[in-house]
Design a protein that fits this description.
2 domains; mainly beta; Immunoglobulin-like; 4-stranded antiparallel beta sheet; 5-stranded antiparallel beta sheet; Methylamine Dehydrogenase, Chain H
Length: 445
């Protein structure tokens, strides 16, 4: 009897174990990410953060009426140490190698020993909001202040500075690809994207009324810029095509958009800033990823229990090692992966039937007319490389909704046109490079 009871107990506990192993816990966070926190800074917010390699990173925190801090990690963000404290505000930090870096706020500061010591660099009498450091000689600092702001450049390490003509409205963002090519924007004013090809001696408008929160180029022609949307250029920024971000699946309605991203190579990018809303108005950060240069973006929610509301700092140093942090918030926390994040990614493209269709078919979008979101359904007869592209009335490509190889079935995707003007648009189903059908869609705002 005793042996029988023991055997029954073993069966009972084994069945419990199998139940837990087999149960699908939908609220558990995806694997591959873990939480990182920064020290308690008495309510001060992290304004900027950078990672130089898999181990070394720095961050700046400030309170305008109190002291600022510079922090450093040497173990990939697991632990942070306060290296420097100043009563002068610091809002942006950039390093050109493991030892040499700069920080701006009330003034411009420089370190040559990895952030342990900082010295003030002679700079114009402004309060810089942003900077771009090409090397120890060539530095740009900018301020959007209407009377004293503008774009300032030094080519001798800060001994002399020249104010460069920046057009109407002083910028609050600057990105330089190299010593000649770069962009500025005044996000709160004219919001015109302006470009230089002579190191800032002159700037010209390439896009009116559209700025950027983040911008990165992989060569002189190909780059991306984000400002709730994500757009790509292949002609040096003269024209831009908006890429479609997923809007979420049932239960995961994504809000906001992308404001920050990291480029691993020409195909692989990660982005962030969006959130999904869980019950009781709990926000959880969303990470975007593409593996084909942005033609298709997917998303994952790395956290359902750790209370990270968004990721407005994204950095990957290779395909496996990356971070997502919340900045300008009292949260002061983030996540880290050494395995490339979770393996599961979601998309707004939904397979709604698996039965083998009789032929390829592109359905009329619904609703139509629409404002600003509409659904597009299509049938796929056999496995193929499928594209769905959207064009304006002039034939200009304005969006790529799908660009991947998919299996037979019936699918539905979402076209979100909140950044496009009212008018007639055309969308095409393209199978293995051949246009199968094209239909009209009317956007009315």
């Amino acid at each position: 009897m005793k042996i029988q009871n023991t055997f029954l107990n073993i069966l009972f506990y084994l069945s419990v174990l199998l139940f837990f192993l087999g149960f699908n816990f939908t609220d558990s966070p995806p694997s591959g990410w873990y939480l990182q926190t920064l020290p308690n800074l008495n309510g001060k917010q992290i304004n900027d953060i950078i990672f130089l390699d898999s181990l070394n990173g720095l961050a700046v925190a400030r309170q305008t009426s109190d002291s600022s801090y510079i922090l450093k990690t040497t173990n990939g963000g697991d632990n942070w140490t306060i290296l420097y404290r100043s009563f002068l505000a610091m809002v942006k930090i950039q390093f050109i190698n493991i030892n040499t870096g700069y920080a701006v706020g009330a003034y411009l500061f420089k370190t040559t020993n990895g952030g342990f010591n900082w010295n003030q660099v002679t700079a114009p009498p402004i309060s810089p909001e942003n900077l771009y450091v090409l090397n120890e000689d060539t530095i740009w600092i900018i301020s959007s202040e209407s009377m004293t702001g503008g774009v300032f450049r030094t080519t001798n390490g800060g001994l002399n500075w020249t104010q460069q003509p920046s057009g109407s409205g002083n910028p609050d963002k600057i990105y330089m690809y190299n010593a000649r090519i770069g962009f500025i924007v005044d996000n709160t004013g004219t919001n015109n994207l302006r470009k230089t090809t002579d190191g800032g001696d002159s700037w010209f408008t390439v896009v009116s009324g559209q700025g950027f929160y983040d911008m990165k180029f992989i060569d002189s022609l190909t780059g991306w810029r984000a400002k709730d949307y994500i757009k790509k250029t292949t002609d040096g920024g003269l024209t831009w095509i908006q890429q479609t971000l997923p809007t979420g699946i049932p239960g995961h309605q994504i809000v906001w958009g992308m404001r920050n991203f990291s480029v691993i190579n020409k195909d692989s990018l990660w982005g962030g800033y969006s959130s999904v809303i869980f019950p009781n108005l709990q926000y959880r950060g969303v990470l975007y990823r593409t593996t084909n240069g942005g033609n298709n973006w997917y998303y994952q929610i790395p956290d359902t229990t750790l209370n990270v509301p968004l990721y407005n700092y994204i950095s990957f140093i290779n395909k496996n090692i990356g971070w997502g942090y919340t900045l300008n918030s009292t949260v002061n926390r983030g996540i880290h992966t050494t395995t490339g994040g979770d393996t599961t990614f979601l998309s707004s493209i939904t397979q709604i039937a698996t039965e083998l269709p009789k032929n390829y078919k592109l359905y009329q979008n619904y609703p139509n007319p629409f404002n600003p979101i509409t659904k597009i359904k299509f049938n796929i007869l056999k496995s193929a490389d499928i594209n769905i592209k959207v064009f304006d009335i002039t034939g200009k490509e304005v969006a790529i909704l799908l660009n991947e190889r998919i299996f037979p079935g019936t699918y539905e995707t979402t076209f979100e046109a909140n950044k496009l003007p009212s008018g007639m648009y055309f969308y095409s189903l393209i199978v293995d490079g051949k246009i199968i059908d094209t239909k009209k869609a009317m956007l009315i705002k």
